[in-house]
Amino acid sequence: GREFAATNGDWSARAVPLAHEVAGFFRPALFALFGAAGFLLLLTCTNVAGLLLARGTVRTREVAVRSAIGAGRSRLVQQFLTESAILAVLGTAAGVAIAAAGVSLLAAVAPIELPRMAAATVDHRVLLFAAFVAGVTAVACGIIPALLMARADIQAPLKESGRGADGGSARRIRSVLVAGEIGLAVTLLIGAALVARGF
Q1: Mean pLDDT of the region 160-165
Q2: Contact by Cβ (8 Å): 148, 51
Q3: Which tens digits make up the pLDDT trace of 46-60?
Q4: Nearest-CA neighbor of 71 among 135, 152, 139, 160?
Q5: Which long-range contacts (CB under 8 A, 24 or more apart) does 114-123 make?
Q6: Helical spans, DSSP H, in the chain
Q7: Which pairs with CB-CB distance under 8 Å and at least 24 residues apart come from 36-40?
Q8: Angle, vertex CA 81, rays to CA 77 and CA 82, nearest 5
Q9: In terms of C-beta density within 10 A (0-12 exposed, 13-18 middle, 19 or more buried), how is residue 80 classed?
Q10: The predicted structure's pLDDT at residue 55
Q11: Percent of the chain having pLDDT more than 70?
Q12: What is the mean pLDDT of residues 118-139?
């Protein structure tokens, strides 16, 4: 610039990280897409946890019988955690399959060309992240119903008489769970829609 001021005087140089240069402009949009996926994950986890809690209130008699014939609390917790782990594994397998199809779909319908979209794929890092999220989700969705059922009073369900006896408290608990689940699901769904619209 000093030697050739007429042609190079206005030029300057600036060093930036390669990742920022490649995806810097799209970084907020990609974070918005990640946020929408997080909202959907929370929505699914909320629904699964609510269903497990509601199902747990229906199974109070079964849990009481198991406790009466000698099943310890750790065994009951293990049973509920196993059920939630199976749900998490099935959900993760379906999610990975949808993600593999969604990557190519996103590349086809994106209004602008996203950087390195052609190289995007479901690789081992994605699978490890999915496995980690599945494990956390299984514990989070399974431990609360498990602990609630394991600590429940086993005498009351066994004393109930009648074939379809259903206490008013159990009905109230199920109603509260359903109402809370619907409210939280609507909130999370609106949040995911707004983030997706921002993307």
Answers
A1: 50
A2: no
A3: 777 777 777 766 777
A4: 152
A5: 114/26, 114/30, 115/22, 115/23, 115/26, 116/22, 116/23, 122/96
A6: 5-8, 18-23, 27-58, 60-68, 73-109, 124-150, 155-159, 168-198
A7: 36/192, 36/195, 36/196, 36/199, 39/188, 39/189, 39/191, 39/192, 39/195, 40/188, 40/192
A8: 115
A9: buried
A10: 73
A11: 78
A12: 82
Tokens standing for residue 163:
């074939």
More confident residue, 59 or 69: 69
Q: Which tokens sit at 152?
A: 């429940």
As a whole number of Å, the CA-based R_g of the chain is 26
Asked if residues 180 and 41 have their Cβ atoms less than 8 Å apart, the reply is: no
Q: What is the pLDDT of residue 168?
A: 58
pLDDT of residue 161: 46
- Token pair in block for residue 56: 């747990």
